[in-house]
Structures are given as structure tokens and as C-alpha cells.
Amino acid sequence: MMKHFTPRGLSSDAPSGFPTVRMRRLRYNARLRELVREVRLSPASLVQPLFVRGGRGLRQEIGSMPGVFQWSVDLLGDEVARLAELGLGGVILFGIPDQKDATGSAACADDGIIQQALRAAKRAAPQMLLVSDVCFCEYTDHGHCGVLDGRQPPDVDNDATLELLAQQAVTHAQAGADLIAPSGMIDGMVGAIRRGLDAAGFTRLPIMSYAAKFASAFYGPFRDAAESTPQFGDRRTYQMDPASPVGQALREVELDLAEGADIIMVKPALAYLDVLAAVRQRFAGVPLAAYNVSGEYSMIKAAAARGWLDERRTVLESLTAIQRAGAGIILTYWAQDVAAWLKDSSA
Ligand code: PBG
User: Cα of 77 to ligand 1 centre, how many Å?
Assistant: First the structure.
């Protein structure tokens, strides 16, 4: 059997093309590295989350998310117009209402916070894609993602929530949403919203479903930002168990597609790259999004603030990994920073 040459002059029977094959040949030249790189981030595939609240002249930084703000509607238009200049794929809007109640009634009001925000954003930046998060956790006084049943302890009443989700989505559509994004992990939510939109004449409005959303500790800072922490219990009866098999995520995706979802999302992103890759492989023809969530943001921010990580390099590497795993669309709090970094050729 042929002996293979190894650098120390030792022989080995392991097949090796070295020295004919040298992996480093494509790494010496920066242009070549760029040429053979298959994963390229682009602002057009990034979606910037924005938090909107009542009041005037407000741009309030969120304590656990430095660089992320709650905006009042009067300042939102200019901000969305500025983001449109960066060429982002879209913005996703989350609302913090003035009043919360047991059924989250402010979520479906024509002059609700998101409905006002959508109108202001559309007016200021008609070219920007406006995504609206459809869920009740920001609107209910108990902080759960739907209305409660009468059980002890109470839980989200799945079927009673469906009709409300459809109503909320229709009011978003009427206010100018370009893409409806239900995030509550309520069984049947995509179908109920699809029927509601169709009945109201919005047959052309697509749905991006948070299809495989896990009950994650990484949402912690978001609940500060959206003021949506559950007042009792947690979301484990509707969001997926992080330890569940990947096949369960595939079933969630399959069901949402059957109900009419146009775009599928996996959330969070970094701890669930295996799920992303599996969904990408099984449903190759479906646009796939990943949500790089608040906790993923805050932990890099915190480390960068201490000088322990280089923020830009860490973020670009993370988002590249999310895209490489299969996401064509990434929702990330760094969307605007990435757009600026990518313009800078040394990124
Ligand atoms: C609402 C919703 C949540 C997030 C997006 N939509 C919070 C939750 O499920 O508790 C989290 C986003 C993030 O952490 O950045 N259902």
C-alpha cells in the first residue's frame, strides 16, 4: 500500500492528498477568500425590530439592551425613513399600549399603538417593508400571549384566542402592514389569521409564522423592552420545550405551511442552528427566517462593553453562522449596525 507523506517525514496509511492538496491555497489572498465565500450578509435580508409606545418626543433606551429604544409614534416616522436609507429588508414593530386588560383589547383597536405606528411609518417611508408582530403578551395585564381559560391555575385558552388574533391581524392590515408575523405559538393561529385576512379582502397579504419558537431564557431582555413579562407562570404550555426533538419543530413548520404560512421562522437563532438546518433541508422551497433574539444581543453587548469581545466581529460571525445554517432572513437588533459595517469595506 502506498505510504503518504506527512510533514514530519512520518508515514501514514490515512488517505491524504497532501502536498498536492493544500487547503491554505485559497486563503492567502483576500480577494480569493472573498471569491470562494458562499455566505454573504446583505442588509436586504435583515429585519430591524422596533418598539413603539405612547407619549410624545420619546426615545427611551432599554436598560438591558443598550442601543435599542422605545419610540413614541411622532418620532417613529423619521427613524423608519432613516432605516430605509440603509437598504434594510424591513422593520418589525412591537407595541407597548397605554392600557392593558385581561383580553388585550388595545391590540385590536383601530387607533391602537401598532395601528398608529404602521400608519406613521408607511407615510414617512412608503418603500420600507413593515412587518407587524401579532400577539397578545404586550396587551394583556397578565402578560400571556392570549386570553385565559377559567382553569386553576389559569392557562391560555387556545381556541378563544384564535378569533382575537384574526381581528388583530386585520387591523394591522388595514393600517398598512406588509407582512403579518404571528408569534404566540397558539395552535391554529396561522389558519385563523389567514381566514380572517382573506375574509377582509387581504388575500395578497403574506404571513410569516414564528413556527418553531422555543420557551427560551434568551427572551429575558425583550420582556423589559416590550413590558410583556408573564405575571404568573411561564410560556411553556404554548412555546416549544428546548429539549424537544428536532422532528417536533419540523411538525410545527409542516402544520403552519398547511395552514397557509408563507415564510417560516425559527426562534431563537444561535442555540437552535440545528433546527434551522433541519428546516432548511426538509422545506427547501420555503423562505426561512431566524430571530436573533434579545438575549443573544444583550450578552454580546455586555461582553463588548467590558472589552471581552469585539462586538463587530462577534456579531458578523454570529449572523454568518445563522445564514449558513439556512436562514435567508434574519431578524436582529444589529440590522442597522450591520448595514453600516457592510458599507465599510474592511468589515
Ligand atoms: C411575543 C414575542 C416575544 C419575542 C418576540 N415576540 C417574547 C416572548 O415570547 O416572550 C422575543 C424577541 C426577543 O427576545 O428578542 N410573543
Answer: 23
- Whether residue 154 is contained in a domain is answered as yes
For residue 221, which atom of ligand 1 is closest to its CA?
14
Alpha carbon distance 232, 74 (integer Å): 34
pTM: 0.95
What is the CA(303)–ligand 1 centre distance, in A?
22
In short, whether 332's Cβ falls inside 6 Å of ligand 1 is: no
Question: Which atom of ligand 1 sits closest to the CA of residue 220?
Answer: 14
> Of all atoms in ligand 1, which is nearest to the CA of residue 218?
14
Domain tally, the chain: 1
Cell numbers for 87, please give them.
Answer: 437598504
CATH of the domain at 256: 3.20.20.70
Q: Which of 100, 122, 213, 301 is catalytic?
A: 213
Phi first, then psi: give them for residue 250, nearest 5 degrees: -65, -35
Instruction: Please count the residues of the chain.
Output: 347
Buried b / exposed e along 233-260 (16+ C-beta atoms within 10 A): eebeebbbeeeeeeeebbebbebbbebb
Q: What is the pLDDT of residues 140-183, one digit of tens each?
A: 999 999 999 999 999 999 999 999 999 999 999 999 999 999 99
Q: What is the pLDDT of residue 169?
A: 98
Average confidence (pLDDT) over 64-82: 98
In sequence order, which residues have a C-beta less than 8 Å from that of residue 322 and are 6 or more positions away?
269, 270, 273, 276, 290, 292, 330
Q: Is 267 considered catalytic here? A: yes
Residue 5 lies in a domain: no
DSSP 274: H
DSSP 8-state assignment for residue 241 = P
Q: Is the CB of 294 under 6 A from ligand 1?
A: yes
Which cell numbers in the block locate residue 49? 425590530
Question: What residue numbers bound the domain in which 131 lies?
Answer: 42-346
How far apart (Å, rounded) are the C-alpha atoms in residues 196 and 198?
Answer: 6
Return the SS3 of 164.
helix
In a domain? residue 22: no
Q: Indicate if 100 belongs to the active site.
A: no
Within a domain: 233: yes
Summarize pLDDT for 180-230 with one digit per residue, the tens.
999 999 999 999 999 999 999 999 999 999 999 999 999 999 999 999 999
